[in-house]
Amino acid sequence: MAGTFRPPTLKDALRAIGDTSTLPATLKRAFSPGDDFELISTPRPGDWLAEHFEPGQSYEDFVRSGVVKPDRYRNRIYLQPLGDFAEATSPYLAKLKAFTSSYFMMDTKILPHLPLNNSILTSRINPYTGKRQVLTLDVLSLLAKNKPGDASCVLAITMEDLYPDPSWNFVFGQASPGEKVGIFSFARYDPGFYSAKRPSGQPAIMLKRSCKVLAHETGHMFSLAHCIYFKCVMNGSNHLRESDARPIFLCPVCLRKLHFAIGFDVVNRYEKLLNFFRKTDCFEDEAQWVERRLKSIPA
Ligand SMILES: [Zn+2]
Ligand SMILES: [Zn+2]
Question: How far is the CA of 131 from the centre of ligand 2 (A)?
């Protein structure tokens, strides 16, 4: 219900991280917020938490929920491009792949493009935008049917607009967490979709938005629920301003969950992300943040 969200206190957030006293020093620091994370604040009208009630998922709740971890047979993330990715207006797939593999510390592969001009996928022209939209449920069943044997999860990404049901106007994406498949559209992250002018740095902005969406949605694939503790990539988002304001990083609660699910070296993960951010336009602030964070975690 609107207006009922009470922002957490630091005590609430620390409780959600859980007891770290028996962990090695590196993990203890990595799961401690220090000065690097801000608590989530009171949502403004129209923001996600003003419109959606979310109880929160602590680290303990997450562990108790029975997480399906990648194992030695299913340990790869697959990205499935659907339709065209025009160079001037779409994120670079090689960059998305590099980001995903550093973020999740898992081998990531891009599957061959799936064309849209086939009869398997239902599409329609949206009467309001006049643009083609693809039915998500068709894509999800196709992904589940063709899922590679070593896939931990498969995420279809597309510049096409999507709809989940004929009665809906559109949807940004949809996942089938049980099957560990999902489809996400970047179409509405491009000002050109609304016939607005693209700013000069648009390819870099598009890449950053797409990386955030991938981090968030792949996080859901590993059973991470929305975060209501810190400003975090796992915060829910209702509109573009809210998505843009969301950091690309996982807060200590969510990092601890992902670490439990995947079991990576936290320092090595930050180093890989730093390497990606340094080599990629538009991620200067993120690179600085990781540098600062790494200094506070003893290796
Ligand atoms: Zn979400
Ligand atoms: Zn979080």
Answer: 35
Distance 224 CA to ligand 1 centre (A): 9
Q: Are 208 and 233 in a shared domain?
A: no
164-195 per-position pLDDT tens digit: 999 999 998 898 988 999 999 999 988 888 88
User: Closest ligand to 219 CA?
Assistant: 1
Separation of CA 72 and ligand 2 centre (Å): 27
Q: Would you say 264 and 256 are in contact if contact means Cβ atoms under 8 Å apart?
A: no
Number of structural domains the chain divides into: 2
Rounded to a whole number, what is the largest CA-CA distance in the chain? Answer: 58
pLDDT (tens digit per residue) in 114-135: 998 767 899 999 999 999 999 9
- List the domain range (segments joined by +) for residue 166: 68-222
CA 257 – ligand 2 centroid, Å: 9
Kindly name the residue from 38, 51, 179, 217 that is annotated as catalytic. Answer: 217
Ligand located closest to 173 CA: 1
Neighbour order of strands in the sheet with 161-163: 123-125, 132-135, 161-163
Residues 123 and 262 in one domain: no
Q: What is the pTM of this model?
A: 0.94
User: Strand ranges (DSSP E) for the chain?
Assistant: 76-82, 107-110, 123-125, 132-135, 151-158, 161-163, 173-176, 181-185
